[in-house]
Amino acid sequence: MSDNQPETLPSGEEFDSWLMGATLDELEEFIREAPQGLSDRRLPQEFLQDCKARVDARLAAEPESTVLTMSDPHQMRILCWEQIAERFQAEIKFRSGKAAISPQDSNPGKSTDVTAPNERERFVRPILEKKAWSTFQFALEADVDFHTANDYLNGKNKPNRTTRARLAKALEVPVEKLPK
Q: What percent of the chain clears pLDDT 90, i.e. is strictly above it?
């Protein structure tokens, strides 16, 4: 872990302070190392839940962006926070004996309603047909897992900002036009 990242994350407040002051490189390093670091049983589940709640609060306070700009450091920081929230949620679920949830379920500050699959299908299928793409090819072009693309089309998930941006880019449509 980097010198600026706390080794033991002794309190939720210290984690929150680190979260706000960490560089993008430090956030990305935390994301890479989180599966090992968060599985340390010396970290109580209440601590993990407190840190997750703090990340969620930061994310909930951010306005929903309709255009993802990878060159914007603030948007990249938000994407890192989303991934950190996912890592915390996965460890919390694992410890409680439940399967890890999908990334789009990890942000309770946002609506979890999903769009009816027929709305997504009506919008996306003609584009896929015009491009002569299967769902698998759509997933490859969007750089997402097949199940992510398939579940999106079938209305089984609500993709996070990054995934929506990737899907929209692959389809060559503005992200705000892609059905949520």
A: 7
Phi, psi at 44, each rounded to 5°:
-65, 150
pTM: 0.51
Q: Supply angle C-alpha 119, 157, 139, rounded to 5.
A: 85
Cβ atoms of 163 and 148 within 8 Å: the answer is: yes
- Kindly list the structural domains of the chain, giving each domain's residue range(s) and its CATH number in brackets, ordered by start: 12-105 (no CATH), 117-177 (1.10.260.40)
Q: Please state, rounded to an integer, the average pLDDT across all residues of the chain.
A: 78
Beta carbons of 82 and 106 less than 8 angstroms apart: yes
Q: How many CB atoms sit inside 10 A of residue 127's CB?
A: 14
DSSP type of residue 176: G
Q: Per-residue pLDDT tens for 21-38?
A: 888 889 888 888 877 777
pLDDT tens figures, 128-158: 889 888 888 888 888 888 788 888 888 888 8
Helix (H, G, I), strand (E, B) or coil at 3: coil
Contact 107, 82 (CB under 8 A): yes
